[in-house]
Amino acid sequence: MRLLGHVLSPRDVRALPEHELPALCAELREEIISICGQVGGHLGASLGAVELIVGLHRVFHAPEDDLVFDVGHQAYAHKLLTGRAPRMHTLRQEGGVAPFLDPRESPFDAFPAGHACTSVSVALGMAQARARTGAPGRAVAIVGDGALTGGLTFEGLNDAGASGLPLVVVLNDNGMSISANVGAVARMLAGPGARTFFEALGFTYLGPVNGHELGELLPALTEARRSRRPVLVHVRTEKGRGLAEAEADVATRGHAMGPYEMRDGKLVRSRHGQPTWSDAVADALGRAMERDPRVVVVTPAMLEGSSLTGLVRRFGPRVHDAGIAEQHAVTLAAGLAARGMRPVVCIYSTFLQRALDQLIHDVALPGLPVTLAIDRAGLVGADGATHQGTYDLAFLRPLPGLRLYVPTLAEDVDAVLATALSGPGPAAFRFPRGTLPTTPASIHVEPGPVSGARWLRRPDGAVAAIVTLGPLGLAALEAAASLDFPTAVLDVLALAPLDVEKVLQACATGNVVTVEEGTTHGGLGSAVLELLAARGLTARVRTLGLPDAPVPHGDARAQRRALGLSPEGIASAVRSLVAGPR
User: Fold this and answer.
1) Is 0.70 topped by the overall pTM?
2) In Å, what is the CA distance from 298 to each residue of 50, 321, 336?
3) Which CATH code, of 3.20.20.60, 3.40.50.970, 1.10.8.420, 3.40.50.2300, is assigned to 10-263?
4) pLDDT digits (tens, 9 = 90+) for 20-75
């Protein structure tokens, strides 16, 4: 009889005879592999943390004890053991189990986390709150999956080690972030220097222990729970453990495999074969690096996600993985630019948020020629609210001297990159997750640098204009063609500097709908309204974009339809604007 059918909560884990725990771990691995095969997900780290999570729930008493996981990549077994097993097949699906940790979903999720390196700081805050209120329980930070490459973790460790509080830090040391960890800390953890380092910070150091051997793991966690001062448990695990294909994947150890299926005992992965925006940008970067030896690439642990591994093979150290350290990556690029290089920082929109101060202080104010290639801009689907590329347009547009481009078509990528690299000062361009669109036959792309906005459609006597930014221009083109009155479509291509002349021509129709896959506050819609206000002009304007509320996980195409960003939704907005009261 399967144990998972009867283990419905951490209380049940603590009630099991200890000799049955290995069987529970085996069932958890089977379930994680099966679920990720159906819906995809962050497989590798969760497979490596199975025994660790069983041990944590065996020794600690969540939710009275706070188990604060870094990111949540590690936590699928935690979800299965905390009442979500019957719904885990809905993982990352609209209305289903969240891709990361979410206290709104379960009281066992102590803190929401989709970005790395937060757990020590959060857990220390919780430990301080307990000390001040006299509340029972322990705060436990489970650091892993690359979090020791990020500076925030060290800020937390520095403060926590001096606190004297009974804080437990569990270091899930699998040697990986998405790909292999980089930097000197990874080397330190592999040798005797780890004990010296953490004890010097003020922690009692326990370990290293084999994170897949409960006979070692449980006594160490028990000792940590009894401690009245900061303690660090160094646990060595293997990312992807239990799935041969993940273990054999030397690049990422199955970080985000799936969907897939098992056929004749072998894993078969779904591959669509269509080039993505990330592929196109990486190819364009390769051509730029061939032309100009000053062009270098910096990325914060996104080699695989941003399709950069081929560039590593071709250009070696000209492609630099800075680890999960977005602030460092941007300021490193500033240093490169200050001495004559032309760095391109390949970074996801959601992770660029973490480096906003560095972008302002270290790049924009000195006017350095750093280019940001912003991946996963807009809706990202199953990764949900913590990973949506919602805010980059709004926080980049006000930065002094920063040029901001958004390619719409595959043919735009080289031109946008070349324009960004050739101009003075900082530049950025954003592109979505997903495959490249097919360019309609009606669009002729002029070669050469980006010099302003372009008309995708400009009929005589237009009574309305759709002003768009990025690939949604194709949806706008389809919307305009479906309307029974002449409607123009203007693709602005650059949000900063804005092509004022063409935008004013669009506004002269009297009815303007702006369309963007970013928050309407501060983005394209705001830019059009600000331009009209500055010129003392009037036009009826409706702004379409992402809402003021977080967009949860789900299918990005369905979310676009729900938000009115489909061709039908855009056409409806134009129709109602034109038909509305004057």
Assistant:
1) yes
2) 33, 6, 10
3) 3.40.50.970
4) 999 999 999 999 988 888 887 778 888 999 999 999 999 999 999 999 998 778 89
Q: 315 near 341, Cβ under 8 Å?
A: no
Residue entry with tokens 């150890």: 253
Which tokens in the block code for residue 111?
Answer: 């803190």
Residue 250's pLDDT band (boundaries 50, 70, 90)? low
Average pLDDT, the chain: 91
In sequence order, what are the beta bridge partners of 232? 169, 205
Query: H helices of 292-382, where?
Result: 309-315, 326-338, 349-352, 356-358
Backbone dihedral angles phi then psi of residue 71, each to the nearest 5 degrees: 70, -60
The model's pLDDT over 447-458, given as tens digits with 9 standing for 90+, comes to: 889 989 999 999
Residue 143 bridge partners (DSSP): 171
Report yes or no: 544 and 569 within 8 Å, Cβ to Cβ.
yes
Helices (H), 177-251: 184-189, 193-200, 214-226, 244-248
pLDDT in tens, 477-512: 999 999 999 999 999 999 999 999 999 999 999 999
Give the DSSP H or E segment for 290. Answer: helix 277-291
How far is Cα 376 from Cα 388, in angstroms, rounded to an integer? 8
Report the alpha-carbon distance of residue 186 to residue 503 in Å, rounded: 52
Q: What's domain 454-579's architecture?
A: 3-Layer(aba) Sandwich (3.40)
Beta carbons of 488 and 459 less than 8 angstroms apart: yes
Dihedral Cα 343, 397, 278, 260, nearest 10 deg: 130
- Please count the other Cβ atoms lying within 10 Å of the Cβ belonging to residue 121: 18
Interatomic CA distance for residues 86 and 8, integer angstroms: 9
* 335: its two tokens: 């240093």
- Residues with catalytic annotation? 239, 326, 354
Q: How far is it, in rounded angstroms, from Cα 358 to Cα 353?
A: 10
**Pairwise CA distance, residues 494 & 474, whole Å:** 16
Range(s) of the chain covered by CATH 3.40.50.970? 10-263, 277-430
Q: CB within 8 A of 101, min separation 6: which ones?
A: 69, 72, 75, 109, 110, 111, 112, 113
Domain with CATH 3.40.50.920 in the chain: 454-579
**Neighbour count for residue 294 (Cβ, 10 Å):** 16
What distance in Å separates the CA atoms of residue 500 and residue 34, rounded to the nearest whole number? Answer: 54
> Helix or strand or coil: residue 420?
helix
Q: How far apart are CA 66 and CA 179, in angstroms?
A: 29
* Domain at 277-430: CATH architecture: 3-Layer(aba) Sandwich (3.40)
With 0-12 / 13-18 / 19 or more C-beta atoms within 10 angstroms meaning exposed / middle / buried, residue 61 is middle
d(CA 507, CA 512): 6
Q: What are phi and psi of 34, to 5 degrees?
A: -65, -45
Mean pLDDT of 340-351: 97
**Residue 270: pLDDT above 60?**
no
Parallel, antiparallel, or unpaired for β 66-69 and 494-496?
Answer: unpaired
Are 255 and 239 in contact by the 8 Å Cβ rule? The answer is: yes
